[in-house]
């Protein structure tokens, strides 16, 4: 397969996953803002959310004050914000268009239709659009496309590159979301265990569509350690870092078999999986959750680079 | 005369680049005026492609280095035995028909000043032999553009050099090509080396001149910068439509960065 | 009433033989059924994604070329002669290219002026003296033909670089077979679907001598913004070869490599659909990002074959066109089977004078123009248009050639009111590799506007399926 084709499939999946995460962040911000003012109020929370995306500066330059409507526009519609839902879906559709022959018509249709719907949303009166509608639409669209991929694509190398894109992007996003809540969102340490703290955790779980699953798995009590365990080390939760790592390994192993040779990317993925599979949540907190997550984000990015060097440049002999 | 050449080009990059790709026209071909005794081009670390001869009779070689580097060094070492043939290119094997060298490029496209120069120079000389007209044009170019380093740069066109009213060998050659074309004579750009002359005037060792096709005689070199035809002090590397087309090294950097270029050329006549 | 135009379906003796088999078909077709079929055809074209972008027009970038369902039919014996003529021409054009990049015998013999060839912009100095594998320069020769009588065909122009439109030939047939299968069951229409296989075989046959295995062939496209991108991806898909852009290839040492997920893969033959000037920034335009740096060196040292060969364009220049019959006589020692349209070279004073005096009766074209742009159809133009054009001609005569207005044949075409004759031309695609091959058929273009002689798709032309009745 041409490296450019693989790269487009890989990035198409990453953008699709990223659009979903941005929508979830938007949802998180929206729900937090419903809470009575605490520690600087919603302004502070929106700024935390924008920080997690590394886009706070860009936002302030463009919009000035952190007004909720602006934050919503910025996160959903703004094409100048590279991680807005609109930017991600537009980019994913462009990637898909270039490799259209590598996609089934169902997958292409799902992506193309979502793009057309997005354009229709853009044309609508902004005041008629509430955040829940936007986030619901994004999550539904993402599920539709992923479903089309899973049910119709041949299980060839292209399919593996799409899934690698999903796995790498998802791990990054889960780590960032958790880090936002833990490291950025709470006004000060004094709030740990407070109502605000609990509300934020619940909101995070909701944003990840995971609060009911969490309640079943951990008996309903909220604690930072248990939630961290759930989002990092629980292999049953499809967005946990461990799940993402297992997936990345699986798809890289498939590629190794298809191409008849193992790769440095496989080694990097195995090393990461080795650590996550062995880790206990106590170790994570010993290291410091923020430090651990920062390291995970960096190692995950390293894995992405390895995949790129090995497969997407076409120069690795 | 035996000439030895040492020509080193170093490219240094501010930050590592992904590699380089170059097309070299750095190996002289044998002809009556020059016999190659020894010649060696080195680029440490690079893959050197198979050398081939193009239709103009020049040796061409692809050089690639596909790994991150911060500097590249191209070193040419050689010994050539030269003979004065009064600038006439004889015994050079080539396939390109002379009339193909009637076309202008962006760099040799004439402007009004060049047209005027040709008109004035050849006024009343329409029936003069081609050789005489070629000499007149070369002399006129030398007069119109006094040698002044720094007056022009690597991308200056013939028209721009004329407006500047000064130039270096590259400008002389390109303006002369434009003039010859206007006089319906095929002309091309030649790059090569020049052994510094003994009269004490400074010259670039990496040199360029023009060749004009004169029916009956063939290609003849005209070095307007030195007001002469190439003699035993010259080594001819290759030709093209203009300075870019005939460049000894054409290349590009993969994953670009700012580069500084350092060139050392030493040409010496050996005691016999 | 006598029609000055040859009607391919009816002549003075009534219905011509090749069209007899269609008689029941269109006569019994109710109008509403026709509308349904027409809509179905459009749906099929849209689904295949066969669209066409017109340069500089704006509007719908995914426009369809109008498809007319009424096929154009050639009898077996008509085609036999065309086939011989086309192959003859393709062989002569390649012989000419081989010659002018080598010793230039035809010029030395004084049969064609040196400056016409060597000062031509399309003559590539960089490949002089280089002999491509099998000496073939133009591997796909598209020859534009018009018909003016039962046995009278003229070559309008030759396309030696990268003629486009073959995807329409293939899709038109595909659509017709899906919509009217019984027509094909009842009649022996020679198939064209072998084209992709022949093209692949042709390309593989010119792999460089250095290639010691099954050659790796790729199709090089300028990218998905190009108006013919659909055709590029369609052909690559049919041949089972990779569709690559410049960035997918790189040069290392003596070879050209393709970037794949399994590492670099050596490429042996490049079927390029980009112009010479963009092929290699180290050899041609230094600002080009569409090509592959260093490619020309690999090509000239025999590491890869480029189809068509850089420099092939010198053979299809409109000024060179006049000399093609001379090439056939000179290289093949044969009499030309297909005729050239009489052409006046405005660069010649006598010809210019004639053109200026008779401009209202002539078609005047730019030497390097294409797509029906920059031309004057004298009899169809008003006075002001003619005057403007005459001024341009006077300013730069050597930029123009002129030809008589040809009485292009007509073929029945579905129109609003039913069926009416419309003017057509034909572009067959001749493949030149180890063998010279031609699939029975080509692209028929039709001028859909009543009376119009301009068939270019950029000027409101449409296309038809072209049938050749198979030999007994």
Automatic annotation (TrEMBL), chain A:
<dbReference type="InterPro" id="IPR007296">
    <property type="entry name" value="DUF403"/>
</dbReference>
<dbReference type="InterPro" id="IPR051680">
    <property type="entry name" value="ATP-dep_Glu-Cys_Ligase-2"/>
</dbReference>
<dbReference type="Pfam" id="PF04168">
    <property type="entry name" value="Alpha-E"/>
</dbReference>
<protein>
    <submittedName>
        <fullName>Alpha-E domain-containing protein</fullName>
    </submittedName>
</protein>
<feature type="domain" description="DUF403">
    <location>
        <begin position="1"/>
        <end position="312"/>
    </location>
</feature>
UniProtKB/TrEMBL annotation, chain B:
<dbReference type="Pfam" id="PF08379">
    <property type="entry name" value="Bact_transglu_N"/>
</dbReference>
<dbReference type="InterPro" id="IPR002931">
    <property type="entry name" value="Transglutaminase-like"/>
</dbReference>
<dbReference type="InterPro" id="IPR013589">
    <property type="entry name" value="Bac_transglu_N"/>
</dbReference>
<feature type="domain" description="Transglutaminase-like">
    <location>
        <begin position="161"/>
        <end position="226"/>
    </location>
</feature>
<dbReference type="Pfam" id="PF01841">
    <property type="entry name" value="Transglut_core"/>
</dbReference>
<protein>
    <submittedName>
        <fullName>Transglutaminase family protein</fullName>
    </submittedName>
</protein>
<dbReference type="InterPro" id="IPR038765">
    <property type="entry name" value="Papain-like_cys_pep_sf"/>
</dbReference>
Automatic annotation (TrEMBL), chain C:
<feature type="domain" description="Circularly permuted ATP-grasp type 2">
    <location>
        <begin position="71"/>
        <end position="447"/>
    </location>
</feature>
<protein>
    <submittedName>
        <fullName>Circularly permuted type 2 ATP-grasp protein</fullName>
    </submittedName>
</protein>
<dbReference type="InterPro" id="IPR051680">
    <property type="entry name" value="ATP-dep_Glu-Cys_Ligase-2"/>
</dbReference>
<dbReference type="InterPro" id="IPR025841">
    <property type="entry name" value="CP_ATPgrasp_2"/>
</dbReference>
<dbReference type="InterPro" id="IPR016450">
    <property type="entry name" value="UCP005522"/>
</dbReference>
<dbReference type="Pfam" id="PF14403">
    <property type="entry name" value="CP_ATPgrasp_2"/>
</dbReference>
């Amino acid at each position: 397969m041409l490296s450019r084709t693989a790269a487009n499939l890989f990035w198409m999946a990453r953008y699709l996953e990223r659009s979903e995460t941005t929508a979830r962040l938007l949802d998180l911000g929206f729900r937090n803002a419903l809470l009575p003012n605490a520690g600087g109020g919603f302004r502070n929370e929106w700024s935390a959310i924008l920080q997690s995306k590394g886009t706070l500066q860009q936002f302030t330059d463009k919009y000035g004050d952190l007004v909720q409507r602006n934050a919503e526009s910025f996160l959903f519609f703004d094409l100048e914000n590279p991680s807005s839902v609109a930017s991600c879906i537009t980019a994913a559709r462009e990637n898909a268009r270039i490799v259209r022959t590598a996609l089934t018509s169902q997958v292409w249709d799902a992506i193309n239709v979502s793009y057309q719907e997005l354009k229709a949303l853009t044309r609508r009166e902004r005041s008629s659009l509430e955040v829940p509608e936007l986030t619901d639409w994004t999550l539904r669209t993402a599920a539709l496309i992923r479903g089309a991929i899973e049910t119709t694509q041949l299980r060839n190398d292209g399919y593996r590159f799409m899934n690698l894109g999903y796995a790498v992007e998802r791990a990054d996003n889960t780590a960032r979301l958790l880090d936002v809540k833990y490291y950025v969102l709470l006004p000060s340490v004094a709030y740990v265990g407070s109502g605000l703290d609990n509300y934020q955790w619940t909101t995070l779980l909701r944003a990840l569509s995971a609060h009911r699953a969490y309640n079943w798995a951990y008996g309903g009590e909220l604690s930072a350690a248990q939630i961290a365990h759930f989002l990092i080390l629980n292999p049953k939760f499809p967005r946990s870092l461990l799940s993402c790592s297992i997936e990345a390994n699986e798809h890289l192993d498939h590629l190794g078999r298809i191409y008849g040779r193992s790769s440095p990317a496989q080694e990097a993925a195995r090393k990461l999986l080795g650590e996550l599979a062995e880790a206990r949540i106590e170790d994570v907190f010993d290291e410091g959750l923020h430090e651990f997550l920062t390291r995970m984000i960096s190692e995950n990015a390293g894995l992405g680079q390895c995949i790129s060097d090995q497969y997407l440049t076409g120069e690795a002999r | 005369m035996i000439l030895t050449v040492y020509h080193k080009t170093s490219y240094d990059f501010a930050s590592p680049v992904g590699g380089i790709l170059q097309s070299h026209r750095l190996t002289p071909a044998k002809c009556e005026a020059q016999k190659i005794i020894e010649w060696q081009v080195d680029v440490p670390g690079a893959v050197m492609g198979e050398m081939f001869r193009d239709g103009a009779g020049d040796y061409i070689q692809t050089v690639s280095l596909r790994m991150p580097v911060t500097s590249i060094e191209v070193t040419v070492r050689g010994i050539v035995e030269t003979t004065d043939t009064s600038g006439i290119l004889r015994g050079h094997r080539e396939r390109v028909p002379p009339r193909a060298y009637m076309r202008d490029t962006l760099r040799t496209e004439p402007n009004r000043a060049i047209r005027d120069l040709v008109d004035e120079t050849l006024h009343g000389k329409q029936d003069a032999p081609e050789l005489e007209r070629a000499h007149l044009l070369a002399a006129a170019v030398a007069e119109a553009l006094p040698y002044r380093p720094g007056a022009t740069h690597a991308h200056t066109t013939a028209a721009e050099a004329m407006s500047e009213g000064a130039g270096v060998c590259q400008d002389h050659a390109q303006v002369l090509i434009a003039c010859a074309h206007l006089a319906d004579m095929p002309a091309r750009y030649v790059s090569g080396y020049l052994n510094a002359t003994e009269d004490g005037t400074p010259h670039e060792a990496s040199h360029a001149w023009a060749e004009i096709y004169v029916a009956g005689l063939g290609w003849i070199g005209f070095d307007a910068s030195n007001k002469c035809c190439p003699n035993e002090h010259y080594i001819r590397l290759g030709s093209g439509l203009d300075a870019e087309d005939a460049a000894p090294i054409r290349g590009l950097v993969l994953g670009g960065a700012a580069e500084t270029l350092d060139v050392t050329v030493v040409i010496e006549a050996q005691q016999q | 009433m006598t029609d000055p135009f040859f009607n391919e379906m009816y002549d003075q003796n009534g219905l011509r033989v090749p069209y007899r088999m269609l008689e029941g078909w269109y006569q019994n077709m109710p109008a509403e059924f026709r509308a349904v079929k027409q809509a179905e055809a459009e749906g099929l074209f849209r689904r295949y994604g066969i669209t066409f972008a017109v340069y500089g027009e704006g509007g719908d970038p995914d426009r369809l070329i109008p498809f007319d369902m009424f096929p154009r039919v050639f009898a077996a014996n008509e085609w036999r002669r065309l086939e011989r003529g086309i192959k003859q021409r393709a062989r002569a054009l390649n012989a000419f290219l081989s010659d002018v990049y080598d010793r230039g015998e035809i010029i030395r013999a004084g049969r064609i002026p040196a400056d016409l060839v060597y000062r031509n912009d399309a003559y590539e100095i960089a490949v002089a003296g280089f002999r491509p594998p099998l000496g073939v320069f133009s591997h796909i020769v598209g020859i534009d033909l018009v018909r003016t009588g039962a046995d009278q065909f003229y070559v309008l122009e030759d396309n030696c670089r990268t003629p486009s439109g073959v995807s329409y030939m293939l899709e038109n047939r595909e659509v017709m077979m899906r919509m009217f299968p019984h027509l094909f069951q009842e009649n022996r229409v020679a198939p064209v679907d072998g084209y992709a296989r022949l093209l692949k075989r042709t390309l593989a046959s010119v792999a460089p001598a250095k290639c010691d295995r099954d050659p790796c062939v790729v199709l090089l496209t300028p990218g998905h913004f190009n108006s013919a991108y659909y055709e590029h991806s369609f052909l690559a898909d049919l041949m089972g070869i990779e569709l690559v852009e410049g960035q997918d290839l790189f040069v290392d040492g003596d070879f050209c490599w393709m970037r794949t997920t399994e590492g670099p893969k050596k490429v042996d033959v490049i079927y390029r659909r980009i112009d010479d000037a963009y092929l290699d920034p180290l050899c041609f335009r230094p600002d080009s990002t569409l090509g592959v740096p260093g490619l020309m060196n690999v090509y000239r040292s025999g590491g890869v074959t480029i189809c068509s060969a850089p420099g092939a364009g010198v053979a299809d220049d409109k000024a060179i066109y006049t000399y093609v019959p001379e090439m056939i006589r000179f290289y093949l020692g044969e009499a030309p089977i297909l005729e050239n349209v009489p052409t006046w070279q405005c660069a010649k004073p006598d010809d210019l004078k004639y053109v200026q005096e008779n401009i209202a009766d002539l078609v005047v074209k730019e030497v390097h123009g294409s797509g029906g742009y920059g031309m004057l159809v004298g009899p169809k133009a008003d006075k002001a248009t003619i005057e403007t054009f005459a001024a341009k001609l006077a300013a730069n005569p050597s930029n123009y050639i002129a030809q008589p207005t040809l009485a292009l044949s007509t073929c029945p075409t579905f129109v609003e009111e039913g069926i009416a004759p419309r003017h057509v031309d034909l572009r067959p695609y001749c493949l030149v590799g180890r063998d010279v091959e031609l699939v029975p058929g080509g692209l028929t273009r039709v001028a859909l506007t009543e009376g119009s002689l301009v068939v270019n798709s950029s000027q409101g032309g449409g296309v038809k399926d072209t049938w050749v009745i198979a030999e007994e």
